[in-house]
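lol ok so funny story. i was supposed to be doing the assay writeup but got distracted and ended up predicting the structure for this chain instead. priorities right. anyway since i did it might as well share w the group, maybe its usefull for someone
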Amino acid sequence: MKLLLENWRKFIKEELDDTEEYDYETELQKQGQELETKYFGNEKDIGKVVYDLYEKAIKNLTLQGSSAKDISSYQDYITDSVVQEVKRLTGKDIVPMGAGSFRSTFTYDNQLVVKIDITVDGVGKKMNQEDKEMGLRSDFGELFPRCYSWANDYSWIVLEKVQEITDYKTLISFFPNKYVSQIISYEYGNLLRYCIQYKVANFERNEEDAKLAIDGMEQPLHYLKKQPDIDYKKVLEEFNKLSLFNKVCAAVFAFKMHVGDSIKPFNTGIGSDGRFVILDSSVKDTIRKGLKAFGHYI
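and the output, tada:
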C-alpha cells in the first residue's frame, strides 16, 4: 500500500506539474458569491427546499396507506408536487432531469443542479458525498461539476449546471490527435477511452487490463488503412501531450471510475467557463453496493 501511494504521488507530479495553473478554489468562491447574490437569501437553501418537499410528499402518501412499492410507482406524482411547490415558494423554474434507482435530479432556474437521495439504505447520500468531494478538490476539481452546497448527511447537494455533450464529435474536440483525426467520431471516442484505460492499467501494473485496452484499439486503428505505420503507441504518445488527457487518466485512477461509462456523450459536458467536465463520476464501489441492494450484481 505504501509503495502504491508513493507511485501515485509520483504519477501526479510527473503528469500534472507541467500543466497550466488553474486557481480552482478562487473560481469556485467567485461563482458561489455570484449565485448567493442572485438567489433568494442564499443559494444553499434550494437543496433543502427540494429535499424537504420530496420527503413531505412521501410522508403524505404513507399516511394515506401507500406501501413502499406503491410509492416507487408514484415518482411522477411526487416529482410534479415538488416542482409546483418550488415554483410557488421561489417564483423560479425547476425542471426534473430524471430519477434513477438512487437519486432524483432537478435543474433550478437553469443555473443549478439539485440531487437528492431517494434510497432507503443511503446509497444516494454516498453518491452525493462523492460528487461533493470531487467538485471541491483543487487537483481534479475542474474536471467535475462545481459543488456549491450540501446537507450535513448528504441527503441533498447543489451543483453547477453543466451543458451535456450529446455527440462524439464535440467530446473528441477536447482531445485532438493528429494521427487519428480522420477516423469517424464514434471510433475516435472508443480509441480515446482505450488509451485512458491502457495508461491507467499500466500505472496499476495490471497487465490483463492493459492487453484488453490494446486489443480494443485494433478496431478504431483498422480505419487507418492508408497509414499502416500508425500504431497505438504513437496515438498514445500524442494524447499524452494533452494536460486534459493526463488529468482525466489521473482522475480515473484516483476515483476508480469506469472509463466506458464515464467518458462518453451524455455523461460528459461543458462547464460554464467552457471546460471539459465529467458528469457520471460516481465511484464504482458505491454503484456496485447500490445495485446489490436492489438485487442486481455486477
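The chain has two domains: 24-161, 168-278. The longest strand covers residues 94-99.
back to the writeup now i swear
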